[in-house]
Amino acid sequence: MHLLARTSPEPAGRPGAQRPERGPVLRSAPHGRVERLLVAPAVIGLVVAVVIPVVLVVALGFFSYDPLTGALEPVGTDNFLRLLTGSELLPAALHTLAYAAMTVLPIMLVGLLLALGINTVARGRGLLRTAYFLPVAATLAGMSVVWRWMFYPETGIIDSSIGRVLGVHDWLNSTSLALPAVAVVGCWQGVGSTMIMFLAALSGVPRALLEAATLDGAGPWHRFWTVTWPAIGPATVFALITTTRDSLRVFDQVAVMTQGDPHGASTTLAYLMWQRGIGFSDLGGASVVNVVLLALVLLTIVAQVRVVGRRWELAGAR
Question: pTM score > 0.85 for this model?
Answer without folding.
Answer: no
